[in-house]
Write a structure and sequence with these properties.
single chain; 326 residues; alpha/beta; Rossmann fold; 2 domains; three-stranded antiparallel β-sheet; 28% strand; globular
Amino acid sequence: MQITLTFDDSQYPARLAEQLRQGLRQRRLPIKFLYDSPAQAQRWLAYHQAYSPSRTETALLILYQQAFQAALDFLQPTALHYISLGCGGGQKDKLLLQQAVSQCQTLHFTPIDVSAALVLETMEHIQDAFPGLSSSPYVLDLNVQPELTALFTPHEIAASRRLLSCFGMLPNFAYRAFLPYVQSLMRPGDVLLISANLSPVPYSESWAHILPQYDNPLAHAWFAGLLDSLGFSTSHLRITVQAQPLRADGHIWHIQAYATFAEPACVTLQGETFHFTPDERLHLFFSHRFTPQVMPSVLADAGLSVLKTFLFASQEEGIYVCTRLA
């Protein structure tokens, strides 16, 4: 099996090194480095397998399949370009393509992720299931909002409809900037499938139940793996996970993970040395939670109109079928 990946300059080594240095200076590491290496990708997959409802709850996968069909019913494509923004391990992409392949005369698949290891994981699954499928996998950082039109259009014919998915991405981006960027990738008539981690009720009544999904041994191993790769002695660090409301009414809140230094530490990266003092914190991770009530307005503020909503029974995950607002 041969897989050819195209790398955007946002993932070139010199740029990655500068982003890491900037993150260490600001005491806030870019989340993308939690996924970037093959070892980190495997740690994330293990954590995801154990704690993600899409892996542990069969009923949620069925809900995703219903959302996929709703999107295809709206598009009714004869030629489809399916673009997966943040493909991860490709499990959901495989399910969607299984439904699309029998409904489209022409089908092209574009998986995109910041992690080359995860794009390869996706492509291995997809090529095994659909050996003749036309595809163009890319490794790039969506956080820098690259211009993607030149990547998309060569793979489309005049009749192509565009279906974009954005699964598991919204929680880990600055959503007020990220959602308008995703909307800008859509043409009139295109459809976006986007998932959100939800809070069934506002912050004060939800955080204690949801926090353990991020504060557990597999999540800590994922966080610690990045620190170890940078040269920190993880035995001298304490990883803490906490929750905090972002709105006074608690309808939007977030979870954050930090590494706190127990003693003085330093690490050198490409000639620059970074010193940390006891009790100093290094920010590692954040994840947003939205109540189901607030999500339509969050999407509308970004120029997205919700065609159909699929809420999981627990109301901790939602899938939204969207088009651009006129």
